[in-house]
Design brief:
The protein contains 4 helices and no strands. It is mainly α.
Length: 85
């Protein structure tokens, strides 16, 4: 599975940056484009949307530490899955 969109690892790195409050606005478009073609990232993004408002508010306010930690766990789990491919 390869295409023009960035790979999962790149997307997950963007999501990590978001969790650190460092996401560039262009990355959201990238993330959303990727999610249109990738079910596993889409599932993650959907859940992060509910918990941290991913790509809705441009990381304006710092996220609560526990929310951030839980979100990071999800990202890490997916990254580990990716690494096994
Ligand atoms: Zn993906």
């Amino acid at each position: 599975m390869s295409g023009k969109s960035p790979n999962c690892a790149a997307i997950l790195a963007d999501i990590s940056a978001y969790l650190d409050g460092e996401l560039e606005t262009t990355a959201c478009a990238e993330i959303e484009a990727h999610c249109a073609t990738c079910a596993s990232c889409e599932a993650l993004v959907q859940s992060l949307r509910a918990t941290v408002g991913l790509c809705r508010e441009a990381a304006a306010a710092p996220l609560p530490e526990d929310v951030r930690r839980r979100a990071r766990e999800s990202v890490r789990r997916l990254l580990e899955n990716e690494a096994r491919h």
